[in-house]
Input
Amino acid sequence: MKQPLSTLQDWHLLRTLVKQVERQFTSNSNMTPTNRNMMSKITFYEENNFQGRSYECMSDCSDMSSYLSRCQSCRVESGCFMVYERNNYMGQQFFMRRGEYNDMQRMMSIGIMFDNMKSCRMIPDHRCQFRMKIYERENYGGQSYEMMDDCNNIQDRYRMSDCQSCNVMDGHWLMYEQAHYKSRMMYMRPAYTFEH
Output
């Protein structure tokens, strides 16, 4: 599955978001993983400061346009979500954890690079191992390395000139466009393959 990104050079992996999800659910350890995932909840609002019509979501939503004409603020009550600037989980995306996001203009100052949210994906709880295989070239060619933990600079750690394809085997990951977890990000989940 191809993503609309300008370049994959200097992409960097991060598993921290999954650790944060685990910590949020640890307080209620008697619940099954399925019940813990059902606790995830995000509410979107048409206007800033949680005003106007709202839409409550506890799972993936590929198109919010039938519920809201636009989305200018949101509140993550539990769990973690990825939000997307376009329908069907397309375009730029942003990781949102528990908290209040009351103004899209302010949200741009913390890394959101778009002025509306059109779809969202819930990030499920994951308590097993984390594995992703990255490849230097497209179609899984060139050098390859298996990743099992955070990496703040793929180029430095593995001496790879580029990262143009990958295969997510276990866990939920974020890829960043620049070193040290900066700039645009892309959410990747198990059974996900990426070819630039």
The two ends are 9 Å apart (CA to CA). Helices lie at 16-26, 33-38, 104-108, 154-158. The longest helix spans residues 16-26.
